[in-house]
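Box S1 | Example of a co-folding query
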Amino acid sequence: MLKGKNVAVCVTGGIAAFKAVSVVSGLVKLGAGVDVIMTAHACEFVTPLTFRSLTKTPVVTDMFAEPEHMDIAHISLAQKADLFVIAPATANVIGKLACGIADDMLTTTVMATRAPVLIVPAMNTNMYDNPIVRENIAKLKRLGYLFMEPAEGPLACGASGRGRMPEPAEIIERIKLEIAREKDLKGLRVLVTAGPTREAIDPVRYISNGSSGKMGYALAAAAALRGAETTLVSGPVALEPPAGVETVSVVSATEMYEAVLSRSADSDIVIMAAAVGDFRPESVSEEKIKKSSCVSELRLAKNPDILAELGRRKGENQVLAGFCMETEDLISRAREKMERKNCDMIAANNLKTPGAGFAVDTNVVTLLFRDGREPVKLSGAKTDIAHEILTKAARLRK
Ligand code: C5P
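Box S1 (continued) | Returned holo structure for cytidine-5'-monophosphate
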């Protein structure tokens, strides 16, 4: 995912420096070229040898000991990197950068780069809340430096509070968000739905379906990676919210209807990947229905069709996409749905096709277009299919 990308990881002297090892190792696994720059204090916590072993590249620690493979290390590193990440960033390095102090290899190189710089603070809560640190962070943000918020929890000093470095996996997700893909959807607002809906029968039981939400989550993650302002309205699933996506959790189809319709007017592309339940119990029992009451009949009411309503309200330059999952007559039913619900494209998939379906990471879909464009067949990872769907949807915009 990060093949061909270069990341300069700058490590400063905080106890969280050990977590930077996992960040570097994760980046290397994703194919990134990684250069590590350490302050002298960082070397007290982790040895340069650890990073050198992972990156197979000399670690830069000293202003005056140029690694042999570089001309002027701080300039060549500054130019080579697609992104700088300072993790952990101490109050000290944040203060220096905010004041333009470049007195070691790390600060000199960061000062010399035009690449985006992502700062990941990690420090004691009182230090983080110190008005001087707050002001320095505000100033750097104003100047375009990127920040990750520290997490809350137990700190190395024994206290508990805000100041922990976010977990390496989170930092890697953020790095991917910054550099993994070209930002070709920047300026677009994308709204995606995902997962099943759950229709309560009583406080314990419900009607639902087997949607895992993977396709919708892949779409939202892909849109965010490509720079779209992305909102995901999700039914109950067991997936982590994608990085950089505003995720709104809902349970029932009625809740999804409200959440989607209140946001759709502002969206350029709306993709309904959720498996919305068609029916809900006509009434919900307030108490758990007793087994002994032997219910033999469940009266159902029809849920609102969100996609059809979106189709009725479709804005002039808005692209509306649906999904159609069938077990027979796939293409003709998908075409009929696309027309009836007034969407611009529909991704048709057959639940019975090997490699397609709810819980798996792959899919086999045929994209149909309202404007008569040739259908497109796609098969493979849901992530790749998500990117294709977004590319096609963006092209449909006038
Ligand atoms: O009518 P059917 O459920 O087969 O249509 C599938 C498409 O319609 C999907 O995009 C799904 O998200 C959407 N849908 C909806 N509201 C419903 C039922 C389906 O938005 N109540």
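Residues 253, 272, 274, 276, 278, 303, 305-307, 322-324, 337 surround cytidine-5'-monophosphate (CB under 6 Å). The two ends are 31 Å apart (CA to CA).
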